[in-house]
Fold:
Amino acid sequence: MTVARDGKGHIIAIGGLLPGRGSLPLFRYVLKLARKKSPAVGFIPTASGDAPRSLRRIRDLFGRLDCRLSHLPFFDRTPDLQEFVAAQDVILVGGGNTKSMLAVWREWGLPDVLKRTWQSGKILAGWSAGAICWFQQGVTDSFSDRLRPLDCLGFLPGSCCPHYTAEAERRPAYHTLLKEGAIRPGLAIDDGAAIHFRGTQPSRVVAPPGSIGVHTVRCREGVVDEEPFLLKRVELKLRAIS
Structure:
């Protein structure tokens, strides 16, 4: 799988959300990138099957932020995709079943629309399924039996594993897949942390104080090498969660 031509826009891959309002500082960081008052945010909850609980949670969180929130349904009447995406400053993708989400998107032709909007300079963001989808591959729990590798959109190089330190099975599963040669080397992201790409180039690690946030993970001669991703950091101020 090849990586998409380098875009001008941003991708912010978030490992996973924190309980309650703990992810508000991350979302504030994303909104600031739009460089405008009350940016338009298009939420895409496909991975959860457009579940009402997912919509309620995002409406509650973003109701506390200065933005205009809408959502793109795929399991009700679906609007014109080009018009919906063009009207947004930020595209936000939720978590859930990544394999099913990508299948729906591909059937509707959404990946090409998202690629064009990213290459035009806009902002793509998301957590869990909404983080790994931008990479060549991701570690997914879309299957009931075990964590598996999944080919994704390929906007960004390498692989991605979300929930890296929050879910006990994530780290050993990623290591095993690397040793087996089933997945490319890549990035592991903790809940509450994110990596910000400008085009296809990593720009910043965004994480709470004291958190590594993002790890590089690769396998060399059968041994997994895991290190903190050394990049300019933005430390989130937890006081911003009110």
Remarks:
- Residues 10-241 form a domain with the Rossmann fold fold (CATH 3.40.50.880).
- The chain has a mean pLDDT of 93.
- The two ends are 43 Å apart (CA to CA).
